[in-house]
Amino acid sequence: LKRGFDLLDAHYGVKIDLDTVPKEEPVIYDMICRADTVGVFQIESRAQMTMLPRLKPRTFYDLVIEVAIVRPGPIQGDMVHPYLRRRDGLEPEIYPAPAPEHGDKDELRNILAKTKGVPLFQEQAMRIAMEAAKFTDGEVNELRKAMATFRRRGTIGLLEEKMVSQMVARGYDPQFAARCFNQIKGFGEYGFPESHAASFAHLVYVSAWLKCHHPAAFAAALLNSQPMGFYAPAQIVRDAREHGVETREADVNCSDWDATLEERVGEQGGLALRLGLRQIDGLQEAEARKLMAARALLPFTSLADLQARAGLRLDTIERLSAADAMRSIGLDRRQALWEAKGLSRSGPLPLFAWGEAREVGPEPAVALPLMPLSEHVVSDYQTLRLSLKAHPMSFLRADLAAERILACADLALCRDGARVAVAGVILVRQRPGSAKGVVFMTIEDETGIANAVIWAKTLERFRRVVMAARLILIRGRIQRHGDIIHVVSERLEDRSDWLARLCEDAGAAMPVPIAHADEVLRPEPGSARGAHERHPGVPRTGNPSLTQTPPPSPARHPRYTRVLPRSRDFH
């Protein structure tokens, strides 16, 4: 948030902080209710994004409840569904009272009215013990300690008997008293104090305000704060572009170390997001700073100029070239990598520095074949962890459609219970401790994202696929609740091999040379020698189906071994 505020100050002259952000704007709550919250503090997880359209927060205190309710404590204590039913008017708010001779009939209403009769905060649990069971200060303190450590100490049972018996003695129904304590016991699985939830809710609102009104600054601030949050840079950039933010490539003449904002020329105006050099995998900040200092005097005009004035190591220039960051000097990725091979690996010789003599002669001009777009995208993901050119899944779409594998966006058109197949790159795997072994998976293709639920029994069958795949094919059925859609998984397939199709042209055009000394009679399947042998089950002619097991891929350059960065996994 501080980085975002600094960008607003620098580009708009707007000085704003946590205390001066405009309060209670309806447009902010509209965005939150749509679960348009990628990157928003605390409410960007799939559990929170699923809850938002159901709870429909319209006020700040609704955000306080939203932050607190999606926690193991309320979930384990069976507080979530009763609260939602009462909020929607499907269930009456009930406040049991003690016998008339034992106190105020509204003692529970005074504690629970703000949360519709359901205890959602730790303070409420403490007050129930004090008011309804008449615990002493010492007993309440013991309850607080037991709630935090009952799994290890086992003292919660002693307090349960005392609290239930004292509530019953004061006239409360035994079943209600037992249910009350079970809800309190749920907080031992981790619940929020109200003050903590309120502090978090304030940060939720402020970050949502920044995303809603200044999406370019919001995205830049997130990128400059990585690694953090649920989503990788590729998803942050994608979300920014979906919100109308023009995003520009990292470039040696335009990019700073951090992502920055640039003026947009023309009628549209506004600010564009320029990716920072920090996005380039393996690039050292010290090298980037040298580049920025040399560029301040004059833009670079060639790789030789870049090397001479910035004093960059050759491996740094090669990293910049591989990341396609030389476009401003007229070189695409392939041409830049070629020209980088012609640079000297050392500076001018000391005795002849006056002539800045190069150790090698001038390279003849070579017209290289254009790199296919799919190969550009693969290289982008390998060097930048994202691509502004296309999504990897877009190159597979025709084959996927032929196999009746839906795009993520198509799931919105499916009815509840429909059986579907959907494929995508895995973004996030979650296995919350309170979910009894269930894994929640988010996948992405060129049309959007989809959310899958993998029950514990399904996980047992497909554990290796779930935990190891980069690109996955999910077969299952649709589960809808209003606009909330999940795919309940029944069968999962690791289809990471499909990503190799994006590089096959390069592999075929540049086969790995084999020396005669490497000749073997029976080559291993998948080796360079065995690459041209027919794979069992695949005909000699014709193209195998996309969903068939593919033949071994020919040996490729090592850069093709990692097409996509790993997903972000949470337990």
Q: What's the end-to-end separation, in Å?
A: 26 Å
- The overall pLDDT average reads 83
Taken as a percent bin, the fraction of beta residues is 5-15%
Q: What's the number of extended β-strand segments?
A: 9
Count of helical stretches = 22
Assign the structural class, choosing from mainly alpha, mainly beta, alpha/beta, alpha+beta, or little secondary structure.
alpha/beta
Query: Which strand order do you get reading across the main beta sheet?
Result: 4-5-6-8-7
What integer value in Å does the Rg equal? 30 Å
The largest sheet is: 5 strands, mixed, barrel
Share of helix, binned: 25-40%
The parts where pLDDT drops under 50 for at least 5 residues are: 505-544, 550-561
What form results from the Cα inertia axes?
elongated
Entry summary:
The protein is of the alpha/beta class and 571 residues long. Helices cover 39% and strands 11% of the residues. The longest helix is centred in the middle third of the chain and has 20 residues, at 194-213.
Attribute tags:
alpha/beta, 571 residues, 11% strand, three-stranded mixed β-sheet, 39% helix, 9 strands, five-stranded mixed beta barrel, elongated
